[in-house]
Amino acid sequence: MSIATFLLYFFELLAAISAITLLFIRNVFYGALLLVVCLLAIAGIYILALAEFLAVAQILIYAGGILVVIIFGIMLTSKISGKPLQVSHTNRVAGIIVGFFFFSLLVKSFAMLIPTSYVVENTTSLTKNTYQSIGILMMSDYVLPFEIAGIILLVTLVGSAVTASYIKPNE
Question: Is the pTM of this model over 0.70?
Fold first, then answer.
């Protein structure tokens, strides 16, 4: 077994274990941390699949941006109530049935998408042109949406900091 195969199995196992553990954990903060582990493991799989741009986007957008906001919201919520946010699991049987339904649907859809033969192409020259063209497009044609998203994130961060400063814990 090569090191790449070992790493692929490691990242797949890490993502699966963190996702399954996420289903049974009661503390929401620990659930958000498990989600970070799952997203980083998926980014590792993207790197092994030679999709470095997707891996960096996965880390920056999901693990770095959205989950920071989720963790901040969880910490702010626990500051208001003075106790950690707990989730009670109800309707486990219905959840398991729905989960198996969606899992079988996912397996069936992947079975239809698997090609019968694999063709490996040389992607070294394509990779450099793809990154370069994405960068040029982001800083020329799509610079306005890029800057608007940055301003919206900045306003959100300032607003959440101001909101957190007004909230006093229950004494």
Answer: no
